[in-house]
Write a structure and sequence with these properties.
Elements: H1 5-10, H2 16-25, H3 34-55, E1 59-63, E2 75-78, H4 84-92, E3 97-102, H5 109-118, E4 121-123, H6 128-143, E5 147-150, H7 171-176, E6 180-186, E7 202-207, H8 218-222, H9 224-242
Parallel strand pairs: 1-7, 2-5, 2-6, 3-4, 3-5
Antiparallel strand pairs: 6-7
């Protein structure tokens, strides 16, 4: 029998070892360095993401895995349609990354524990000053060697169309001068959102070649958001046409 969404989410914080890891290595614990803390929490989160994917009956097929770096700093850019996007990405990406997440995530009791423990960056898109502070914090993290995951549509898309990418997301890579890894995800919303119950699915992940600002002209940098949006759209169409 397949689990409910609440039972799957409970896996995030379900056993003594997980609680111990979160308390011992949580972000901000002065006993451990930032990098050591994040690597430990991310490794446990990766194990749990894979458990959740298996419990939900997900099979993840990856195209372009050779384009994923062993380590950063890079900015991972992906389309967003489901709660299972993050589960898919964390299951596959080995490079310990943090995410820029909506302020509303703070109100999600189980997920917010992991967001805080990992040291992710909250952003409030309705507050321009706070949004700028979040972007500046992200740039600082990248310059210190930390990879970051962003869903530049800003929220989960409710249609089959890719949402417009918000330009502010790209200041991170441009100001920190680090590569962007474009990623397209297909079928993640069919695991739960499409029917409001867990349904086994084959989920596809298409990883494009890195886009490095260091290799771009001034004019190319100006249109970078649209370039990456088009790249992700092409990666997504490739998945749709072949699956």
């Amino acid at each position: 029998m397949l689990p409910s969404i609440n039972e799957l989410l409970a896996i995030f914080y379900s056993d003594i070892s997980t609680i111990h890891i979160l308390r011992k290595y949580r972000f901000g614990n002065k006993k451990y360095g930032k990098r050591e803390s994040r690597e430990k929490v991310y490794s446990v989160l990766k194990q749990i993401a894979r458990r959740m994917a298996k419990a939900a009956g997900m099979k993840i097929k990856v195209i372009g895995a050779e384009n994923l770096p062993e380590k950063g700093p890079v900015v991972y850019i992906a389309n967003h349609k489901s709660l299972f996007d993050a589960i898919t990405l964390v299951s596959i990406i080995d490079d310990p990354c943090i995410a820029i997440v909506k302020r509303e995530v703070e109100r999600m009791p189980i997920i917010s524990r992991w967001v805080r423990a990992l040291g992710c960056i909250y952003i409030d898109r309705e507050d321009m000053r706070q949004s700028l502070e979040a972007i500046l914090e992200g740039i600082k993290e990248l310059k210190e060697g930390q990879s970051i995951l962003i869903f530049p549509e800003g929220t989960r898309s409710k249609t089959d169309e890719l949402g417009k990418f918000k330009e502010g997301s790209f200041k991170l890579a441009l100001k920190a001068n680090v590569p962007i890894i474009p990623i397209a995800l297909l079928n993640t919303e069919k695991v739960f959102e499409a029917s409001k119950k867990i349904v086994p699915q084959t989920v596809y992940m298409n990883v494009g070649k890195p886009i490095d600002p260091k290799n771009l002209t001034a004019e190319e940098k100006k249109i970078l958001p649209k370039t990456v949006e088009n790249t992700v759209k092409e990666l997504l169409e490739e998945l749709k046409n072949n699956n």
